[in-house]
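User: quick one, sequence for these tokens?
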């Protein structure tokens, strides 16, 4: 692959703004499990090998099991995720595939399970990982 733009060098202020959002997410009340499930699932949907590699490693560090990581792309057919995790994964998929819109059913299910602050943190985490996926894929970051 030919060399591509390096966003932090070309647009450092914009990159820093996204980093600040990532720093905010690190301070939220979201559990490490919830954060990493969001980041892995969105990255799978987007086909971002760089982010899948990073976040599966992070998930393992936080105690996530191999089984749950392997089953994540088929979470609907797996009985290893909680009701809350399934709501988060459904919302992650619909926000990531936003052209299909976020259904009232998926949104209301998440809203029923989480308070407004936690739900906002979930949504912001989904949006942020989708931004990172797009930067990594567009600029040619590779998993090693």
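Assistant:
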């Amino acid at each position: 692959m030919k060399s591509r733009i390096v966003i932090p060098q070309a647009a450092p202020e914009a990159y820093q703004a996204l980093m600040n959002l990532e720093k905010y997410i690190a301070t939220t009340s979201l559990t490490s499990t919830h954060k990493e499930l969001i980041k892995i699932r969105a990255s799978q949907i987007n086909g971002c090998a760089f982010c899948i590699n990073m976040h599966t490693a992070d998930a393992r560090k936080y105690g996530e099991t191999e089984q749950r990581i392997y089953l994540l792309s088929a979470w609907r057919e797996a009985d290893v995720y909680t009701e809350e995790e399934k709501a988060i994964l459904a919302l992650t998929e619909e926000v990531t595939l936003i052209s299909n819109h976020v259904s009232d059913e998926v949104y209301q299910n998440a809203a029923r399970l989480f308070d407004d602050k936690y739900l906002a943190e979930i949504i912001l985490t989904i949006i942020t990982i989708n931004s990172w996926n797009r930067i990594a894929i567009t600029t040619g970051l590779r998993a090693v």
